[in-house]
Amino acid sequence: MRARLAKYTILLIASLTIASGAWAHDLPRPEAGKKIHVFLLAGQSNMEGRADGRRLTEDDRNRLAKAQERVQLAYNREPIKPLDVVKPHPSIEENYHRDRIFGPELFFGIAMSEVWPDEKFLFIKRTEGATTLLGCWNPEWSSEKAALMGEENDPKLYSDFVDYIQETLSGYDPDEYEIRAMLWVQGEGDSGNEIAAQQYGDNLRTLIEHIRKDVDVPNLPFLLFQVGKGEVVKGMKRTAQEVENVTLIPQSQDVDSTDFYPKMENGHTNYEGMKKLGERFAEVFLSDYGRKQD
Description:
This protein is an alpha/beta fold. It is built from 11 helices and 9 strands. The chain has helices at about 1-20, 45-50, 60-65, 90-95, 105-115, 145-150, 155-170, 190, 195-215, 230-240, 270-290; strands at about 35-45, 50, 70-75, 80, 100, 120-125, 175-185, 220-225, 245-250.
């Protein structure tokens, strides 16, 4: 917990830098008659990514180099940079024996830039491993809910994420960008608590309602990947069926299924699985919501 609080203190200090507009020059600038396509990404460790960034093939790197001309990544309040693998927290580097990692944003961005080669993109990503929707990510946070998950002293991640979005986009005029969708990978943390699991579907609806209101996009597409188990997955499926513009990307444990995503022994998606997930997010977005502009 102390390590997480120390990390969050650093993020807060960095946020002041963003708020001052010091990084505005790093934002992609829209071309005449076009807008920047903004995508929001959030969740816990499988959104943050544990995939080994050193395993990118020569073809992957060539594709990424082209994508970097069109896609910028704002990640956990670090300086905004072209899309790339990132350096992990020291504890992750030590535990996983890798100095570069990536999440679904990498191949999502590569795929999107290949399908829309004349467009520019900005991804705003906020993640924290081992966090829950009932606690840290709850838009209607309370100390009682957070305490139930042992997160009463941890960051209020939803409000921090909204602040981060607003601070980052303050470098644009309102007509220079369009928020296209939110990608969500989270649920493992709630699966192990009976109350959190039972409430996951309702809390997910609340999250979707709040983010749509807070970014002022009433029908914002919300894409989520099936993680967790039991009541959490039931809540995801129910929400995707009942709430407009919500799409669930299913996951299967059957290695022969097209919905199987390879993992490491601890359950984190590996290089092959994360590459597939990023490309699947792009495929689903383009299929279900893929108009270019209003």
